[in-house]
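Slide 14.
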Amino acid sequence: MSDLTPEMLLAGYAEGIFPMAEHREDDAVFWVNPQMRGVFPLELFHVSRSLAKRMRSGQFTVTTDHAFAQVVSGCADRAETWISGTILDLYCELFRLKHAHSIEVWEGAELVGGVYGVTLGAAFFGESMFSRRTDASKVALAYLVDRLKAGGFILFDAQFQTAHLRSLGAIEISRAAYRRQLAAALETSADFHRQGPIPSAQGVIQRSTQTS
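Slide 15: predicted structure.
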């Protein structure tokens, strides 16, 4: 079993590292410190025309912090995952401590997409997202970015850059550049719930257009 505590996790994030497990059945957790880091520049995120159409369609409803454990489990529901039972338990504890948050996307009563991560200062450390319907994770990301902007966050850490994340606006920066951004974020306060209730799709779309 891992002897990590939520406090140790937060200390790790503050040092620029994050935990992973080798696979879902592995209780051991190791720290990762990438040479290059994926980040989402909040001011550059843009809702595409196709995504805006999906958001306006009324197919999905969006909530925040309503089903955190379900979102983490949804992210782990794939053939290969680094989200073990130990990881799930630790992040659920961070959620209880109000240092982890989720955005949920629903189709009727079914959870079909979501994203979760950790907050510290004005940094949001994105952990994972999932989608069981076309564009569901993109919808979650759009609402998340809007909430982070409203809450005063200045760093959205995506950990690794992938082709999928690049298509959504992520860029790659050096470890040194990341640490500078992290230091500034840790010296700044932000509030994930400053925005209040989930805004309308049109509001999210308009603000994305105004700031991109």
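Speaker note: The mean pLDDT is 92.
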